[in-house]
């Protein structure tokens, strides 16, 4: 089938490669910067250096698949798809978009005569080799048309149509919220071992736990790799960013009156990781000194540092 992917970041580029390598699809690759398009062409795709060329090279009904970051840049790309495409074309948003925004985008796209799919995609930098788990929402007939591409991109049984517009991105949002909690649990466990009196080889422990234990997982395989490269993680700052999905999951938990203490706690732990000096912790130290006379550790002056 014909499929066009715009956005040659790490995910988009490797998705193009996986589709091309299957030999089952004609893939048009587009990107704002031409270098990545050239690279996609070298890997067997047809290149498009403008949105107009991207649309022109695809056969109707076109599959116009955006793999740009969530937010305004995705909004702009979808608008360009509707400006240059034709009624009946299928627009696919593969970003980690907030599902409420996806519902609004779907309404606008449908009003313009286009079909809509939101695709929540998990696989990261490993997706080319092992496949992309894909959660899909939108128009059922559009899904049926694009399904051969989803099947090629995913591992066995690794994709599903989940419902109307927003269903794919909602499932991906919750998926990432769960991921936050899992990462936090593993991190806390390894820190407890690191602080203990035992000289643990964390790589060996991660490997051990993956041999039939109830907490075995791909994340533990990645932990084993990380500890093998840097046994005490001395090359890494303990600063953890978040890309939005954890926040949205907590927001939806509040909206639905669902107690999500683990996911919320893992999100707030990420916030704490970014504070060199926490004003909240300074406040607690000051109050303990006031009510109990507890010792306060003096802050270092710039000269002392």
Helical segment count = 13
Cα Rg: 23 Å
Count of individual beta strands: 8
What percent strand? 5-15%
Which series of helices and strands comes N to C? EHEHEHEHEHEHEHEHHHHHH
Q: Biggest sheet, open or closed, and with what strands and sense?
A: 8 strands, mixed
Strand order of the largest sheet: 3-2-1-4-5-6-7-8
N/C terminus separation: 62 Å
The percent range for helix content is: 40-55%
Structure report:
This protein is of the alpha/beta class and 305 residues long. It contains 13 helices and 8 strands. It has helices at residues 10-21, 34-42, 51-56, 72-84, 99-111, 127-130, 140-153, 167-195, 202-209, 218-229, 245-255, 261-273, 279-292, and strands spanning 2-6, 26-30, 46-48, 63-66, 90-93, 115-122, 133-138, 159-163. α9 runs antiparallel to α10 (218-229). The protein is globular, with a radius of gyration of 23 Å.
Short description:
The chain is of the alpha/beta class. The protein contains 13 helices and eight strands. Helix 8 (167-195) crosses helix 11 (245-255) and helix 8 packs across helix 12 (261-273).
Give the helices and strands, then pairings.
Layout: E1 2-6, H1 10-21, E2 26-30, H2 34-42, E3 46-48, H3 51-56, E4 63-66, H4 72-84, E5 90-93, H5 99-111, E6 115-122, H6 127-130, E7 133-138, H7 140-153, E8 159-163, H8 167-195, H9 202-209, H10 218-229, H11 245-255, H12 261-273, H13 279-292
Parallel strand pairs: 1-2, 1-4, 2-3, 4-5, 5-6, 7-8
Antiparallel strand pairs: 6-7
